[in-house]
Amino acid sequence: MDTFTLLWLGLGVLFCLMELFLPTAFVELAMGLASFAVALLSLVIPKLPIQIFFWMVFALVFLFSLKRFVPKKDSYLLAEATEAQTLTSIEPGKTGRVLFEGNSWQARCEGDFSIPADSKALVVGRQGNTLLVLPEDFQNQT
Fold first, then answer.
1. Which range among 6-20, 67-81, 95-109, 128-142 has the greatest average pLDDT?
2. Alpha carbon distance 36, 121 (integer Å)
3. How far is residue 62's CA from residue 69's CA, in Å, rounded to a whole number?
4. Angle CA(135)–CA(140)–CA(142) in degrees, nearest 5?
5. Going by C-beta distance under 8 Å and a sequence separation of 6 or more, which residues neighbour residue 122?
6. Coil, strand or helix at 23
7. Torsion sign over Cα 82, 88, 89, 94
8. Pick from 14, 50, 49, 48: which is nearest to 32 by CA?
């Protein structure tokens, strides 16, 4: 085995281990697989510049092949009018706290309503880490 073959095998192992410990959506795995492919190719093509070219081509091919295995990021969707429990009172235009899905969230009342502490509220949306809420009986208040 020549020096370049060992170099490509070592790089392949290094990239695959990096993917194992630092997940990067298969980028390092693709580079590792490309290194293994070039290690085989280096037995036939001894010139390093040509090997580097093939490594880049193989890495791109493997990267786009593995891309379909990366899970899609779904945005967090709230169900229509989900119920929450207020922990503090929420005045119009101000924020308070609600208990939603077992966690305490910052919440802001949508509209000119005041929601007292320890009452039910309807979660109607989300802006960043702040839930948008309405009083449970907001239809009766309009």
1. 6-20
2. 58
3. 12
4. 90
5. 81, 82, 83, 84, 133, 134, 135, 136, 138
6. coil
7. negative
8. 14
